[in-house]
Amino acid sequence: MDSRHAAQEVNRSRTRQVVRAALVFALGALACRAQPSPLYDGADGATCAHFNTGALIAWHHRQGDWRDRYGDAQGEKAFSNASVQASDAGRVVQWDVTDLVRQWVEGRFANDGFLVTAFSARERGAVVFHSREAADLSQRPALVVELADGASHHLSASADTTLDCTTFASLGSRSALTAGLEHRTLLQFDLSDFANANVARATLELTVQKPYGDATLGVFAVDAPLAVPADAQTGLAARYRADRGIAKDPAVLMATGFDTPSWREAWSYVSARSSIERVTRAPALGFEPLDGAALMVKIPAAENLGVDMGYRLADKQRAEPEEIYFRYYLRLSSDWMPTLDGGKLPGISATYGQAGWGGRRTDGSRGWSMRGSFYPTPQPGNPYHARSPIGTYAYHVDMKDDTGDAWPWSSGGQALLERNRWYCIEQYFKINRIGQRDGVLRAWIDGRLVFERMDVRVRDVSSIRIEQIWMNVYFGGRQPSPTDLHLFIDNVVVARRYIGPMGR
Known about the structure:
By secondary structure, this protein is mainly beta.
């Protein structure tokens, strides 16, 4: 071998080493979440915008997130390709997905499913395949897994759907799947029985229902947009076990619980219309104390309001600040299942009785609000059915309509609350400079950042600042709750600095 060829071989060897190292690094990052996430193809399942619509878990990229054979996010190097011709109606198209299935069963990263799509703009064709709803069982999607011991397993899809950005609806109930340049097919197969199995070969099979031109389709690994929980961020509350003595911290403006009958004195007002009770026991509702007594809030059936009370900063502190931290503990009860509509939760506001709620549009000179919010519980059958998505209900200058904007704290599924568990909810708001879109809103759950916006505009005049902490629990807009709903609140703190979960 001459020196030129030797040098080329060395370069090729180095390239292979770099590629292998990159692959190991990428798949190592994915291994942090090796547990599969369930792909859901029901009515509130996967769509162009959401991995799970009912749970408000949004894709990082419209029309799906994936990894290619080198572990690259949104990469174009398929694990396997197959060509389909315009004359291929009825054909069973096969992809060799052995490498991908091996990585799943070995637990190297999560089996979130297959994504089938086209990339080349030269090929405008699309292929319609039979889905798992096809009447003919033989035409349904299949994954054939052959093991090293000679056993062969024919698996049916546990979920399949098409991501189509021309509709907001989930298409998982249809008898057809479409893959092409403008459509992506998602499929998932349950491989839990094959953990650490020695896979000799794995083949994905889809039966063509109708081809529209020629197309080359590649298979990629779905990368569900679920966050690996980060370490909790501690704040000033970490120094105070169960918040004992936290009220004396120089950064704390108010700290209160509901342990004494005089708890109302900490607040500027408590509406007589509120349905509230200080409790230490409520076993029928799954209540367990966080720290002594808590405030039980009830939204009665056929009504909307649970609680309306506030801590007005000018009243209690003689001044309205331009930034504030607000933390409270929240526990959803056993009966918390808002299926028809969402509603409001505690937050930060400055309505001044003029604007920022109830359809009173914010115009920059009268008022605003950043209340918390809850959303309808995902439908039965959805893997997140027992959880409640939460977020912010924002009245700001640039809002889209007269009734406020919904800003879910989707954050990879970290803002889905279970019932009968205490959560530390914290919100921070810094008001914008006059006329600028630079207001900052952040939210944490149990010390983990789940939401951030740094482009909020709520005022154009200096008289608008932060008026109050608004403890508001309210069902829907006008439609009342069809059933009684309960939640519990405890250990409220308002401060100039990040508070964080209480010390243990």
